[in-house]
Amino acid sequence: MSSSGLLLSRTDASHYTTNFVPTTLLAFILIFIAGTLLRSCAVLTKKHADFVARFVFSISLPATILVSLDRVDLDASSWKLPAAAAFVVLPLLCVAWGIARLLHLPRPSRGAFIVSSGIMNMAFFAYPVILATFGSEGLARALLFDVGHGVLVFTIVYAVAIGHGAQTLSPSSALLRFVSAPPLWAVSFMVMMKLIGATLPVPIHQALTPIHWTTTPLASLMLGLSLDVNTIRGRLIPALTGTALRMGGGFLLGNLASDILGLSHLERAIVMISAAMPAGLNAVIFSTEERLDVDLAAAIVALSICVGIALLPILPGVVVLLAR
Question: I need a labelling partner for 56 at 20 to 30 A (CA). Which of 8, 91, 259, 318 fits?
Fold first, then answer.
């Protein structure tokens, strides 16, 4: 990164420190709080959360995948950032499995713990933070990192969710459930499109965009409806452990991945910030879909988001330090 680019990042970081409330993040928080209040007042129930989760999983999330990946451009060196995601996600899944066994978590809780540790909150948290600090140049690299992250989430991580689900499935039934998942089809389709250098036709992209816009508010509402404060008390230790693993472990693995792949200063900052993000909402979606411990998944997501919000005031300084 050039000295002028680094100076721009420092200027952006200074602005971010004093005047930074990403609109998407603020909307996410407000809708999440509204969902929590609606459930606590018994206006909406867990059944409503299940219905919203099914809609998001089958319709709005695939639309988001198609629209988001359609904007990503690949070149000869683009493989490094998706590879960095693999260096973060795969070790986290293994470590989470070991910790879950040490905590003697039952199978559905173990699945929710592992899944929550491996999914980063990119769209609702990382993107606005990176855009505000590094501008479009940083966001483009974050999108590339998210390509690798997204492929892993909708393949390996989702397979982990199926394997730990409360439903008793034969190997063939589990495989059929996995390959028939709409998000997996969306990711596979867009990866093939990118490999041949193609994009979605403009009318299709435009038709999918309004559906894509529903993912953030619906997923935020679902998280609020899924969160039960009373059940969190009994899951506080695994929730705190999962939060520490997702953010702290991700940060360390992001640094290691940057060293292994020899990333540039800007790419290193993007990878480490992305790897340290709170748990993603797909953890709750997968947990609901596969009948895992939804309360534990929601607790890890909510607690990690609270930690992420608390860290926002110091994040710009960390960003500038990483970009040197």
Answer: 91
